[in-house]
Amino acid sequence: MTPQPAYLLHKRPYRETSALVELLTLDHGRVRAVARGVQRPGSRARASLQPFAPLHVTWSGSGELKRLGLIESRGPAAMLAGEGLLCGLYANELLTRLLPVELPVTEVFAFYTATLEALPRPVARAGVLRRLELALLEALDAEPRFCGPEGQALDPQGRYVFEPASRAFVPGERGIDGRTLKLLVAGDWRAPGLAGPAKAVTRAAMAPLLGSRPLRSREWMHQLAARRRAPQA
Hints:
Layout: E1 4-14, E2 18-25, E3 29-35, H1 44-48, E4 55-60, E5 65-73, H2 82-98, H3 106-118, H4 125-139, E6 159-163, E7 168-171, E8 176-177, H5 178-185, H6 195-210, H7 216-229
Parallel strand pairs: 3-5
Antiparallel strand pairs: 1-2, 1-4, 2-3, 4-5, 6-7, 6-8
Helix pairs in contact: 2-4, 2-7, 3-4, 4-6
């Protein structure tokens, strides 16, 4: 096969010298595969097969679990640390949990690439993560509809909460105001004051897909935030 641009989403040891990997690929979406021999000391593939590093890969096999062939670097890994690293781990965990195997998601791949490029900059993190979440929801036909359950327009003066069953918004006193929701549907996600509402909308839309099992990366984010709030000795 022609080498595919790819990123490693998750890796765990398999037998003595191999690994089970989850990859995000340009044309085939999420691919599960065995990477044979990559755990051997000195393996060239081991050095290349790292999170946040752009790769070229090939694989073989007709079942859901493939066998990796070529594993080749196509550039340096994104330099992530601290909160930026946790954001990258969150993106990887989200795609691993929600993407069906071999569902073509070229737009998600493009947004993931843009996310890795932006995560080293703190000011850009919230916006690119929301864009990636929305692209993922669209790929799964689960994106929020910025209207009422019957398609009715939202009142800029009203307040609304997201209803998962209809993927739409219903009136609710503690919800988001209609003006803010209209800004979000217009794509103006970077306007002042939109970070919180945007996060609330995408989180509510993803909740039914994620189920009751929490995201580990989200828990790590909470722990980091708690440490930052703790008084210094």
